[in-house]
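Appendix B, record 7
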Amino acid sequence: MAQVRYENKSFEWASGESLLECLERNGVDVPSSCRSGACHSCLVKVVDGPISPVAQLGLKETWKQQSLCMSCVSTEQADVTVAASDMSVQVKAKVKRKQSLGRDVVRLQLTTDAPFAVRAGQFVNITRPSDGLTRSYSVASLEQDGHVELHVRVVPNGKMSGWVHRELAEGQELSLRGPTGDCFYVDGRPDQPLVLVGTGTGLAPLVGVARDALSRAHRGSITLIHGGRTPEDLYLDLELRRLAKQHPNFRYLPVLSKETNVPGAAHGHVDRVLADQFKSLAGFRAFLCGSPNMVRDTRALIYKLGASLDDILADAFIPAPLPKPKASDAAHPLPVLSSKPFEVKKGVPLMQKVRFGVQAAIFAGFLAQALLFYLASLRPFGSMLPFMAYDSLGHLVVSSTLVVWATLFLAVFIFGRFACGWLCPIGFLQDVGEKVLRALKVQLPKPVRQANVVRYGMAALVLGHFIVMPVLAMPVRVWQFDWLYREPWLLGFPFRAGLFTLDLLLLFTVVGLVLPYFFGPRPYCKLVCETGLLFDFTSRYAFGRVRRNEGFERDTCLSCQRCSNICPQGINVFEEVHLFDRVVSSGCISCMQCVNTCPNETIVYSLRKKAADTGRVVGYLAALQTRAVDLPRYVLTAAFAFAGAWLGFVVLPPSYFHTYAMFSALGGLAGFLVWKGVAVVFAPWLSRWFPETAVSQVEKEKAARLVPLSPEERRTTEGGGSPRTRKLVAAVGACVFVGAWVAVALVSWQVPGRIGTLDELPAQRASGQFFFGVPTETSAEATQKTYSGLRDALGGKVSDDVRVWRGDSYGALAVALEHEKLDAAFLPAAAAHALLRRAPVHVIAQVQVKGSTTYSGMLVARSEVAPTPEGLRGTRVALGQMDSLSGYLAPVWWLERQGVKLQDLGEVVFAANHTHALSLLASGRVEVAATFESAVRGYLEKNPGAKVQVLKRFNKLPNSVLVTRASMGEAEREKVLAAFMSVFADADAEHARDGLRDGASMDGLVPAGAEVLSSVDAWLE
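Structure tokens (predicted):
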């Protein structure tokens, strides 16, 4: 059985009990309260033996360095020697040396009559022998110095400092007790840069810390900033300058707030000089000593500049209190304490169950969609993945999912980064993995935080890949809302079911189990997710925050660190709430774990504005350093500016970018003038709704999170916004939120459905449906633009449910017609001719292009190609599909007439379409390309400097024809022909005609029969 040794006594540590219970059972009085690792009142010091990691969870690093642990949760039994956590001792000390430094500082060097282990930066208490007067002073010496050095500032009417200055002499004895404090140098990170900031005699511990770090071979830079009013306050100036010359990695920077003409000294306050010297303090360790106000402000500034709160060690010098006034009979109000008894929360809080239930429901919906996709051939609603929504911008397509994500970003601006904690399926997988690991008793490391350079690099990658590059590559003008436009969404669609399941399992294994084991909870969110990064940026201006519970007028925090320990984002919740009265890190995902685990309801989640601790409903405007009265002007001006830009986009050619700016500026001016008129007419109401109160500099600093509010400031500034204003702003926010969804619904009602592919044809179709096939144009987007209007125009004429399907090749369309999966299709003449030989299909109409039913094909070549059989042999040729007259049959026929066979050519490239063939020719990939006349004419208009030669022109090639399935009756064929002919005659079908004219160059249809394809025989020899 394990043994516990305490003060020369040994106890048996019984199985199943904690170290605290063992000590109490044997009569050792150890302070305790929660008995569950929350309050830290049961700390003991482990003198010898192992320490359970759980027993140090949430303790400061300096406490861990002193081998302190929580006895109530220390259950891993082993032989240990423990002692009380307060290891301070009282010894006799003798003044070895007394020296005056500067104007009002006395240096004391004390030797003790017994061992006294103290670290530079800690503080000790000295007691005057005559009356027991005690004061605390920080230690400036190292253990190897052989004495304890203190710096005592002489203050007017100071009892202790005056005695030290006037009466204390070398050789005199006094009492010394300590050490205490954790503002000292900790080994383990020798390359970490250090910054030390102090004022007055706050220099004493900083000098000790700097010397301690140098004596322990610290390699990182050490910067010491010491501030005073006049040169006399820099009482160790010469010693520190000598120390800087001896150590290249040590820098001393004196600061004076009053005098300006002192060589080598900066002017101002230490926090401002610190901000000027360092643009970022990420990765630094900071030590602060001096007045409470300086420590508070500088600590906030250092955190704002990127340092971790765990790496900011501070001791504020608090002067002795003034003498108490004589007691009077006046009654003093007592603090109102909560009647609710203290109780540590156990189990899973209700809010966490709700959050996890919402996550599970969203994930279950995703899985249900997958099952419907594979089992019922249900097509998903389109891409809900954010990067695909961003990608639509690259094609200048306003996707409906992009509107949804924009609405979500608006919600993040209000509620904080809640989407990551409540809505994300990837986050759900990570949370499930964390639960599995904890159930297996796997201790996860502290969450890793991503470096800013990596995060910004990822943001640049997202913007560059999904927005900038597609815009540069495809400058097309397509503005269209769509539900069914992009590929299916999320995690593997449309893979096979087995691949989808394997993808899901691998994702859970890697993201939910492996990565958390090495990098802590939620690693994907912090290291990879580009949407989380954008949410991070948005959340910096969010209203919703985890805050101190302002219902308490006393500090109820038990410093249990549970909030920090449980945070999946690795935020030091305890320190941020303590320093700023709220969590200021935008990485907070509002998962409420810290709120729900707080044992004394010290922290809550609230929608009070970040800068609205002043009490204004419109307080977030303070963060933008503006005024509430400016809000309507901004809204009107911005709305008119966007309207002007949109008007310019509609009426101007795409290249007139500078004119867009002019239209936008004119629109903004119009909005401003409208605002001026509104301000005159509705002045009384505006002054009441938007009070013209400028934001003070203090409020700006609070908005910038430089200083927290004191309770007095909070009480005096509450209630600044009227209930009517709050209701108005809430109503406007609700209208914007609901209006965005209503706009999506209204627009999507008018948007044509996506043109599907032949692979998506259902095995069985409902009665009354008409399926029509079209060839793929230059892209799926171009096909959508070309034929979506035709589908709408045919609706109600041939059938109430008309659906259009695109084929990647003419042959695929012909096969679908042959097997009667399609009712009708546009086919090129050669493909229709070949289909007629296999199936009794019907040719009912022929396409007209510029009034003609025939067109001219061309075989064009680069100017350096010799137009002879010898010159053509060995060349690289781009041909079209094998059932295309102008793209393949006619060019091959002519080449063979010239004695050039396909095997005589250097390379044959089958282009996707005629535009592709010309682009291959222009890039030098091929020397010869087969296309048609209008394509060459358009190419030369866009590239006037291009030089090509026409090798052969093929006149009067028949245009495409409209073909129907074999089983279609004559009456139904006449109905279909009449419907298609009406598209080119009805006034209501203008949109359909525009799409066909712009995309397929089609401007009419004429009735036709199979005889229109008789000319194809000449090309098929």
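Remarks on this record: Residues 283 and 406 are 34 Å apart (CA to CA). The two ends are 100 Å apart (CA to CA).
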